[in-house]
User: What shape does this take?
Amino acid sequence: MSQNQEIFQKLKAYINSQIIGQSALVDRLLIALLCDGHLLVEGAPGLAKTKVVKTLSNAVDAVAHRIQFTPDLLPADITGSDVFRPATGTFYFQKGPIFNNLILADEINRAPAKVQSALLEAMGERQVTVGNTTYQLPPLFTVMATQNPIENEGTYRLPEAQLDRFLMYVIITHPDIESERKILKIIQKEEKKEPLPSFPKIKEKEIMAARQEVLNIPMAPELEEYIIQFVMATRHPEAYDKELAKYLRYGVSPRGTIALDICARANAWLNNHEFVTASDITDLIHDVMRHRLVLSFEAKSEHISADMILDKLIKLVPLP
Assistant: This one.
């Protein structure tokens, strides 16, 4: 185990000690950080989506910012804008919250399309253009966007093409009964102002070094071919199941191939594997691909979900 792996193991343990019952979300957030990618999280209110980012920011030497998305939000509220300075008669650029390191985009589906596009363009290009000037975002830049599946009023659905910008789309559920007990104990300590565990902040250079180690995790050619074959199966499902073909309009894009490859390496690195295993890939297929499938009308009318299609393909596409 390398020194950076030890650091991330301690970070993982620290976050899991504060975010109870959401270990999968914690893993995915750390994988996104290691892969220099962004996360879309869907879950009911009160499932610690906001707290997990705050907890991560407390353990990383980085600046975090929460943006509450609302229907009246403007793109300039995200990116910043040129502001007139009367004393000199000139304009200067006032940076928006997007220029921080860790961004929590809360309820992204409540903002109109222009605001969503402003955020997603910054995520994809790692820069913001205002007027004739382009401004680079910081090297350490990760967005965790959330959306609430319960309420539909006042929401704007994210288009499939924009969803593809997210490295993973994670769906979280309520914790079990034992986790609920632990959550209550932690909240009681917070209310009594009892000291909570602290964590030495991880430096940006350590995160960058960890990213390089992830890229160097070896993957067998057979597993790389499996990723490619799985992606091709989403584009040509009739080769495996003719009935399955009627449920898919479009399969996974090349971004999905790249995302599954790097996420599998990060998953292996985070679990102290010397090389990528088949389980490192299959454990992440749903989170990497569910938002990259475009379902047909037949699938929606028959209540066939993307996860159901992926479950079927996992059984049909042979592992090496």
Observations:
- The two ends are 27 Å apart (CA to CA).
- The chain has a mean pLDDT of 89.
